[in-house]
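User: quick one, sequence for these tokens?
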């Protein structure tokens, strides 16, 4: 079976996936940052699982928190909105997002 075919293996190349509509809301009183974005599959492969890893960054570029979300069954051409809450360990200046293969414990 070919990768990307229904019932096929997970494609290893994630270059067809990109993040758009990225925004975040900082709740300083609770020490939380809520990140909202859209993952878009511009290719012809179907992805069983992909992880979107979120890193909070301080003004100096240091890591101020991290979390991730796993999205399942992403079809060719699909656009999927998602949200992630991240506990902040300092002032958040920006948010980094990375699409990657899910990390197993």
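Assistant:
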């Amino acid at each position: 079976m070919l990768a990307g075919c229904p019932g096929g293996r997970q494609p290893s190349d994630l270059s067809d996936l990109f993040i758009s509509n990225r925004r975040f809301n900082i709740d300083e009183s609770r020490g939380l940052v809520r990140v909202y974005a859209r993952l878009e599959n511009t290719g012809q492969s179907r992805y069983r699982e992909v992880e979107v890893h979120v890193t909070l960054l301080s003004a100096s570029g240091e890591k101020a928190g991290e979390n991730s979300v796993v999205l399942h069954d992403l079809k060719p051409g699909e656009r999927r909105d998602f949200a992630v809450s991240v506990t902040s360990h300092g002032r958040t200046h920006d948010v980094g997002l990375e699409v990657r293969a899910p990390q197993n414990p």
